[in-house]
Amino acid sequence: MRRNRTVVAVAALALALLVGVTGCTRVRLQDNPATAVNTLDKTVSLDGATHLKTEVSMGVGELKLSGVEASGTAMIGTFVYAPTDWLPEVAYVVSEGTGTLSVRQPAESGVKPFDRVKNTWDVRIARTVPTDLTLRLGVGSSIVDLRGVDVTSLDAVTGVGETTIDLSGARADGFAARIESGVGELTLRLPRSVGARVTGAKDGLGSFTADGESVTSDSWVNDAWSGCGPKIDIVLNRGVGEVQILLVD
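and the corresponding structure tokens:
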């Protein structure tokens, strides 16, 4: 019980520090009056790219990221945001067959005290194109559904809030991942039938469970890790809060 209270206290302190640094008195992820809410629909073509380097960086808000089956398309996104200067910055360039895609919340995304803000992104990336994926997430909630996405590497930093990263499903090729959790809850959905390893489980403060069982060692593997086939190798740097692994058939 004392440990749980410590986790909550440290999380509250981290959030207070973050709010102080960003200069925000209060951030509410609620609907503003209709005249203040903006919607951007954005489609990015592959333009001949056969490999993608994709970075999604969101400071405050709610992110849903998943794959899309759309021939010749690198990304389809719907962005609902307020105030107007929170317009996402989307950039894409192709060089020697590699497409570099960047989706960012503007660095200067300040709000006045007691402003209501809204920042909801629905980002869908190409499933069948090999992709190096980088995620930089701040305050809010994120659902990252990478089922069916041909991930070749994953580098994710979560901030304050709840994050789910779904790597379940069949994999033709393995990949390495680095995940740094911040303050809050991180859920990793991993395939039961594809080899998976998570190292660094003893770092951080808070609970760590895999398929409902507490993890006390520095390295965890599923049963499929010792077999043949592709492997998902994850280095986890834990922060403060709860981390759980769910094995999915």
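(Above: one complete record from the training split.) Residues 1-35 have pLDDT under 50 and may be disordered.
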